[in-house]
Amino acid sequence: MVSVKSRIIRVVLGLIFTVAVWYFYESYWALIGLIPIIVGVTGFCPACKFLGRCSLNLKR
C-alpha cells in the first residue's frame, strides 16, 4: 500500500510529466506519465508489491 503523501506526489509528477512531454514534443511517450497517475489514484504499486518494499513509500 502506498502512503497518502506518496500518492499525491506521484499524481502531481505524473501530470507534470505527461503535460510537459506532450506540450514540448507532441509525442505518445507522454503516456508513460499515466503510470504514476494510475498508481497514485489506485494506491497499488506493482513494483512495491513484488519487491516487498518501496523506496518512495513515505510515512503515513
TrEMBL record:
<dbReference type="InterPro" id="IPR021309">
    <property type="entry name" value="YgaP-like_TM"/>
</dbReference>
<feature type="transmembrane region" description="Helical">
    <location>
        <begin position="7"/>
        <end position="25"/>
    </location>
</feature>
<keyword id="KW-0472">Membrane</keyword>
<dbReference type="Pfam" id="PF11127">
    <property type="entry name" value="YgaP-like_TM"/>
</dbReference>
<protein>
    <submittedName>
        <fullName>Thiol:disulfide interchange protein</fullName>
    </submittedName>
</protein>
<keyword id="KW-0812">Transmembrane</keyword>
<feature type="transmembrane region" description="Helical">
    <location>
        <begin position="31"/>
        <end position="52"/>
    </location>
</feature>
<feature type="domain" description="Inner membrane protein YgaP-like transmembrane">
    <location>
        <begin position="3"/>
        <end position="53"/>
    </location>
</feature>
<keyword id="KW-1133">Transmembrane helix</keyword>
